[in-house]
Amino acid sequence: MKNFLLTFLAVLAAGALVAGAFFRWHCDDALHAAAQERDAMKWLRTEFHLSDAQFAAIAKLHEDYSAECANHCVAIGSARAELTAAEKSGQPAAALAALRRNVAERELACRTAIGVHLRKVAASMPPGEGERYLQLLLPRVENYTHRGAPTVRLDE
Amino acid sequence: MNTSPDPLSGLLQHWRIAPPGDPQFRSAVWARLQAARDTRWAAYVRQHAAASCAALALAVVAGGWLGQWQAHRQAAQDREVLATTYLAEIDARVIADNRAETHVHH
Questions:
Q1: For chain B, which has fewer Cβ within 10 Å, the N-terminal or C-terminal residue?
Q2: Which residues of B touch A58 (CB under 8 A)?
Q3: What total number of domains does chain B contain?
């Protein structure tokens, strides 16, 4: 029994050793480091194998887009705030519907702008990587759902 | 009938042994016990060579698969975190969500 246990433990240890070795072998350290630091640009560079020139071009695209993004953010924020205020003050249904349409239109404009921006970024990537980039991100942009502010209302 | 005392009894009564002290005695005994134990395990493994080899092969294959799977799972989680972080920086809808959330919490 003791020998069986010893053999069992030895086999288990060998398995654990192999598991550790395979984990280290297949582990993407650069990806993990970027995730730990929440550094999306570092990830972009390593994940899509960008050269220095491609990375610089994409960083410039992001910088240029940030002003447009800020405008969309303000527009969406104010439209949502108007809708929330109208809901709280008990505005008529027609007015609320109009405000909801306004929010939806602004969100659609934002979604369209992101799509254009992502395609521009993809075009600056190496062949093949751009498609992978779009496949990874475009569905997330399309499937966005508004989280909304935390609420205590039970009907939401 | 011989009634004279046996000289052997007297000799045995006065016989004293004074062996030389061996400070390594205890450790030597343990070393031999350990060696015997090792030999027994090795012999056990040899006796069950087929089963031991099969178990080892299974452990190596399972360990390799598990390590690789764990690495891929971690990579997928990292990608998820980074894609979310990336979009949170460029998607005005997400930024507006985060700002509203921060505003409520403050």
A1: N
A2: none
A3: 1
Q: What is the CA radius of gyration of chain B?
A: 39
Per-residue pLDDT of chain B (106 residues; tens, 9 = 90+): 566 778 888 888 888 888 788 888 899 999 988 877 666 888 888 888 999 999 999 999 999 999 999 999 999 999 999 998 998 888 878 887 777 777 666 5
Gap between the Cα atoms of A85 and B50, Å rounded: 76
Report the phi/psi class of residue A44: left, alpha or beta, with left for phi > 0 and alpha for psi in -120 to 50.
Answer: alpha
Residues B91, A3: C-beta atoms closer than 8 Å: no
CB contacts < 8 A, A to B, total 154
Q: Give domain status of residue B21, yes or no.
A: no
Tell me how far apart the 2 most distant CA atoms of chain A are, in Å: 81
List all residues of chain B from 45 to 84 with a beta carbon under 8 Å from chain A.
45, 48, 52, 55-56, 58-60, 62-68, 70-72, 74-75, 77-79, 81-84
The two structure tokens encoding residue B36: 């015997």
User: B101 in a domain, yes or no?
Assistant: yes
Q: Which domain holds residue B78?
A: 32-105
Angle (nearest 5°) at CA B53 between B47 and B58 = 145
Give the C-alpha separation, A40 to A48, whole Å.
12
Structural tokens at position B62: 């399972």
| Distance from the B51 Cα atom to the nearest Cα atom in chain A, whole angstroms | 10
In a domain, B8, yes or no: no
The residue written with tokens 């969309």 in the block is A72
Residues in chain A: 156
Are residues B79 and A147, on separate chains, in Cβ contact within 8 Å? no
Quickly tell me which residue has 């403050």 as its tokens.
Answer: B106
| B72 in Cβ contact with A31 (< 8 Å) | no
